[in-house]
Amino acid sequence: MYHNIDISPFKNKKTALVLSGGVVKAASWHLGVALALEEMGFVLKHNKSPHDVDHEISTYVGSSAGSLINLYFASGFKPIDIIDATINRKNAQTSLKAITYADMLSRKMPARHPFNFDFYNPFEGFPPLLKQMAKPLLSISGLFSTEGLNQYMQKNVIISQAFEDYASDLFVVATQLDHSRKVIFGKYNYPSPIHDSTAEYYTGVDVSLAVSASMSVPPFYAPFPIKNPRTSQVDFYIDGEIRETLSNHVAVDNKCELIISSWTHTPYHYHDEIGSLINYGLPAICMQAIYLMIQKKIVESRSKNILAKDVIDTVNDYMSSQNFSVKDRTKITSILERKLNYNPNIKFIDIHPDHSHYKLFFTNSFSLDPQKSKYIMTAGYKKTLEVFKKLE
User: Fold this and answer.
1) Residue 381: inside a domain
2) In a domain, 91, yes or no
3) Its pTM surpasses 0.90
4) Beta pairing, strands 56-63 & 15-19
5) Domain range holding 18?
6) Measured between alpha carbons, how far is residue 347 from residues 13, 167, 343 in Å?
7) How far lies 369's CA from each of 21, 33, 263, 295, 346, in Å?
8) Is residue 229 assigned to a domain?
């Protein structure tokens, strides 16, 4: 027990850490969260971590930046070492090399076929001058590519390209560009989840390629190519959270009992000190729009779980009042749990910024500035302690 926080209720629970995307900002927040979890007594499982521990995080589910942070943990890097490399850069005591802008901003783009204007012309009917100005947009698939990050992972992070070689259960979520399919890369070939028949588990893909695909946020990053292990054709992938934010169902599929989720997409709420976002231009307005959409998806997911519990409890209360036998009540409850995709034995814990953390909203998502990273890490660290303290 650390910080006088009791985590004994979670003893020997199969635990998952689910990390969202959000570029550097989210990565910094996740590191603060993980450091607090470790100090409270949770062990981040890797190939050399101790066995037979009471509070082990053995499942990692990540999208975009969250997939990279989880890869660090699965490869044996401790949160404090990643933080040291991130903040102190060349003066860090750890041997881990920090990510640089050169890693993030690679211009090595995937091959493309010639554009067919006869089939698709998004500027049809536009004035000639506007057509000419917009035409260069059709020749690019993104400003940069994640190939530099792929090379960084191969040189500095991974212990193997095979998911099977990791002692922990590592899952990486990405979205197929040319299909309405979410793909979960990992070592297990589970069936599609009940709530989303278009989501599929893929095995046999290199770890660094899967993470690179998951981090390919359009339009900043171009879609990332991966050879499909089933068809041998090349599929292109974009950010893992396009279809669904926080793939908690992956942890559920992996039979986890405690699911800790970390995310940073908290929309801005009006503060007199700041005023309206209308005063801060298009970047702030677009970010707010994105955060609102993402938060809505998270809230809907949580609401479904709460509603399922409420329905089952209501039916149980009615059966009890009508003197249903224990056998019948148990059978009906089991059917409802299966139909509503609800498991009463799973505990969900969300760690995210409050609306009062408006300074975090305005922090540049792509900035590698050590002081900004430190501020976000500290916020994630404190919030984690606060959340677990309230659970006591």
Assistant:
1) yes
2) yes
3) yes
4) parallel
5) 8-114+142-280+344-391
6) 10, 23, 9
7) 19, 19, 20, 26, 38
8) yes
